[in-house]
Amino acid sequence: MIIAVDGPAASGKGTIARALAAHYRLPHMDTGLLYRAVALNLLRWGGDPESEFQALRACDFSQIDFADPELKSETAGGIASRISVYPAVRAALAQRQRDFAGQAGGAVLDGRDIGTVIAPHAEAKLFVTARPEVRARRRFDELRQRGVTTHYEDVLIDIRARDDRDSHRAAAPLRRAEDAHLLDTSDLDREAAIAAAIALVERARA
Ligand SMILES: Nc1ncnc2c1ncn2[C@@H]1O[C@H](COP(=O)(O)OP(=O)(O)O)[C@@H](O)[C@H]1O
Ligand SMILES: Nc1ccn([C@@H]2O[C@H](COP(=O)(O)OP(=O)(O)O)[C@@H](O)[C@H]2O)c(=O)n1
User: Fold this and answer.
1) How far does the centroid of ligand 1 lie from the alpha carbon of residue 139, in Å?
2) Under-50 pLDDT residues of the chain
3) Residue 196 carries which DSSP code?
4) Residue 149, CA distances (Å) to 26, 122, 144, 155, 176 in order
5) Which of 36, 87, 119, 174 is disulfide-compatible with 166, CB 3.0–4.6 A?
6) What are the pLDDT digits (tens) for 94-120?
7) What pLDDT is attached to residue 29?
8) What is the predicted pLDDT for the residue at 39?
9) What is the pLDDT of residue 63?
10) Ligand 2 atom closest to Cα of residue 76
């Protein structure tokens, strides 16, 4: 079974995707990490995010340690959303995601375009969302726990900017697939959100 989990920043899609993978014993891919890795490569090479050509050259995972905590920084997330508008970058990362989705037994993938572009044939699709203020609070708490000094208002501004860029780009914009189940986690704690996600997957399978 392929499970596609899409949604905006800090909606809880990664938490839900990891829990679904554990529940159904499926491998999981956080596709945002691929875009973040390209962003980090570009940053470290001193490349220009405004250049599609330079961003494409940064699609090289040979130097990337996917456990690098820098991948999770707001800087990497912001640059990732800028370079992910380029069709050439998206094309360079697509096959790796399709291969992962296509493995025997299935997989869980989370991102922005899994249900619409990468795995439109997925058996179960979730579109996870939450109010921007709730998402900013979650991301702010997460950053603070990691020892990052920031302001809630700045995190909210970044989240709104990323939502806008991800939803309005021409290539594979963030949108709910017509057959995706909407899951708003604004008023759900982690356990309730995970239980709701499992119930939706069960409904999709039935
Ligand atoms: N339902 C929830 N209630 C409260 N906090 C949550 C919930 N879901 C996720 N979180 C927390 O919010 C932060 C962002 O969640 P994450 O799953 O990484 O989101 P995304 O993958 O959409 O960016 C994490 O610190 C996570 O533990
Ligand atoms: N499948 C995907 C995944 C991420 N992305 C881009 O990569 C950025 C970082 O994604 P992420 O999932 O790691 O971000 P968070 O939701 O964890 O903050 C997003 O803002 C998108 O612009 C994408 O375009 N397509």
Assistant:
1) 7
2) none
3) H
4) 36, 39, 6, 11, 33
5) 174
6) 999 999 999 999 999 999 999 999 999
7) 98
8) 97
9) 81
10) 9
**Residue/partner pairs of 188-196 with CB below 8 Å, 24 or more apart:** 190/12, 190/15, 193/12, 193/15, 193/16, 193/128, 194/15, 194/16, 194/19, 194/20
> For residues 156 and 9, is the Cβ–Cβ distance under 8 A?
no
- Looking at ligand 1, which residue's alpha carbon is closest to its atom 18? 14
Atom number of ligand 2 nearest to Cα 162: 20
Tokens of 13: 């899609």
> Dihedral (C-alpha) 108, 113, 119, 122: value to the nearest 10 degrees?
60
35-51 confidence digits (pLDDT tens): 999 999 999 999 999 99
Q: Tokens at residue 115, please? A: 């249900």
User: Residue 176's pLDDT is what?
Assistant: 96
Q: Which residue has the tokens 């239980």?
A: 195
28 sits in which H/E element: strand 28-30
The answer to whether the annotation marks 10 as part of a ligand binding site is yes
Report the run of H or E that residue 108 belongs to, with start and end. strand 107-111
Nearest residue to 151 (alpha-carbon basis) of 36, 74, 88, 95: 74
ipTM above 0.95?
A: yes
Q: Which domains does the chain have, with CATH numbers?
A: 2-205 (3.40.50.300)
Conformational region of residue 171, where left means phi above 0, alpha means psi within -120 to 50, and beta covers everything else? beta
